[in-house]
Amino acid sequence: MRIPKITSLYGRIFAIFWFTMLLVLLSVLSLPHLDPRVARDVPADHLGKLERIAKAAEKRYAREPNLGKIVFQLEAPRSRKDSRARIYLTDLEGAVLTSKRHSDYKLKAIRNFVTSIDNPEMPKQKLYGHYMVAGPVPITLAGEELLMYAGVKWNQPPPFLLRLFDRPLQLLLAVMLASTPLLLWLAWALSQPARRLERAAQRVAKGQFEVDPTLEKGTSEFRQAGESFNQMVEAVNQMISGQQRLLSDISHELRSPLTRLRMANALAIRKQGESQELERIDTEAQRLEQMISELLTLSRMQVDSHITREVQPISSLWEEILKDAQFEAEQMGKQLTFSEIPERSISGNPKLLMSALDNITRNAIYYGKDQVDVQFHVVQDQLTICVNDNGDGVPDDELDSIFRPFYRVSTARDRNTGGTGLGLTITESAIRQHSGTITATRSQLGGLQLEITLPILPV
Questions:
Q1: Could you say which EC number(s) this protein's record lists (predicted)?
Q2: What stretch of H or E contains 39?
Q3: For the chain: N or C, fewer Cβ within 10 A?
Q4: Do the Cβ atoms of 391 and 413 come closer than 8 Å?
């Protein structure tokens, strides 16, 4: 098993885990050196103070021969405000000399301390609750060799680590707080490459097959995933581009024999005169030429639509188109109405966007009986365009199929119209390449409603 590298995701998780464990371990190891409840050597200044207290006591009770009286005076009650150290005496065997019948917590602390600390050459100190005990120091009182201990109230707060270890919940919270920045950094290191990969996948789903160099940054696992994703995008892009170029080449090559066919048909009409058969040949040749032209348009649009994009006001794109369509509808004895165009801007390919609305508007005029309505709506940063007609409409089970290439509905709406079945396909491709959608439903006017939704620039 190889040692994980710190640049890898596995290595970073491993390092953060052990770094947190190391912090806890260092805290545990440092605790005995900070815990005043563990017996430790008396500091030099405190030891000097103890020795001065012993000498002062010897001097004070030098003329008192009764040791019991000395002990009684040492244990005399004091005011709570008296912060002086209290003296305790033991014999050389470790028995505490006291005149009290009942032991208070201070006397119990002294007795506990004396059982383990009785060497005057190595005085210690130890904390019992809020009471610090230190000693022993040799002292002579009433002609007897004794050991002196001192006790004083300890008002200093315990060390921070000691408070934590005394309260497991606080210790847990401290560990969580200490590890939170590392975990946040780890979460960020995990989420950022994942979000970049998600955004790149969404762009691919919308038909934008572009390599994203930022995917190849971050931990080694995400870099490898990003490299593989970019390689996949390149492969898919090359495959689609090759397919589209092949379609474009085939369509282009078909134009030459088609042109010769139409020229030969024209010569035949000139020599033999017009006939129903020759006229049908010319009509079908025209339809085939129109189909090839639209195939070339679709192929060229799918390859190059992402190259030319610019910001345009919505009104500059579609206002003239709608006015021209309104004029053509009047010439056909029909009425086209449209709502006020919002004063917003959109980023995209102007030619494709204009062609998309122009195509579905002219279809509505052609198939509508006498009424066409175009409505614009803006909700937040989404533009919705609804084109309605009062024609025969499309069967409900075929509404989702009309955007497929060469699809012709089974009703009279698309029978004997001369259409190629590519117009709505071109429109749907143009809208999809602008991150929009187009749907077909029944219109309230009785015919077909085509609804376009496009993202627009924020105000």
A1: 2.7.13.3
A2: none
A3: N
A4: yes
Cis status of the peptide bond prior to 36, with omega within 30 of 0: no
DSSP state string for 261-329:
HHHHHHHHHHHH---HHHHHHHHHHHHHHHHHHHHHHHHHHHHHTTT--EEEEHHHHHHHHHHHHHHHH
DSSP for residue 207:
T
Burial class (CB in 10 A: 0-12, 13-18, 19+), 26: exposed
Distance CA 263, CA 289 (A): 13
Count Cβ atoms within 10 A of the Cβ of residue 175 and give its class: 0-12 exposed, 13-18 middle, 19 or more buried: middle
pLDDT at residue number 306: 52
> What is the DSSP secondary structure assignment for residue 397, as one 8-state letter?
G
200 CB-side CA count, 13 A: 23
> Which residue type, as a one-letter code, is found at position 387?
V
Residue 376 backbone dihedrals phi, psi, to 5 degrees: -110, 135
Element (H, E) at 385: strand 382-389
Q: Are 295 and 251 in contact (CB under 8 A)?
A: yes
Cβ 32 vs Cβ 126: under 8 Å = no
Kindly tell me if the per-residue pLDDT of 103 is higher than 70: no
Q: What predicted TM-score, i.e. pTM, was given to this entire model?
A: 0.50
Distance of CA 206 to the CA centre of its chain: 21
Q: From residue 352, how far is each of 182, 297, 349, 359 by CA, in Å? A: 50, 10, 6, 10
> What are the helix and strand counts (H, E) for the chain?
11, 13
Q: List the end-to-end C-alpha distance of the chain, in Å, as a whole number.
A: 57
Cα→Cα distances 343→316, 321, 356, 361, 406, Å: 10, 17, 20, 21, 36
User: pLDDT tens across 184-243, in order?
Assistant: 777 777 778 888 888 888 888 766 778 888 888 777 777 888 888 889 888 887 887 777
Token readout for 354 is: 């204009």
Phi, psi of 149 (to 5 degrees): -120, 150
Q: What is the DSSP string of 71-92?
A: HHHHT----TT--SPEEEEE-T
Tokens standing for residue 390: 């009062």
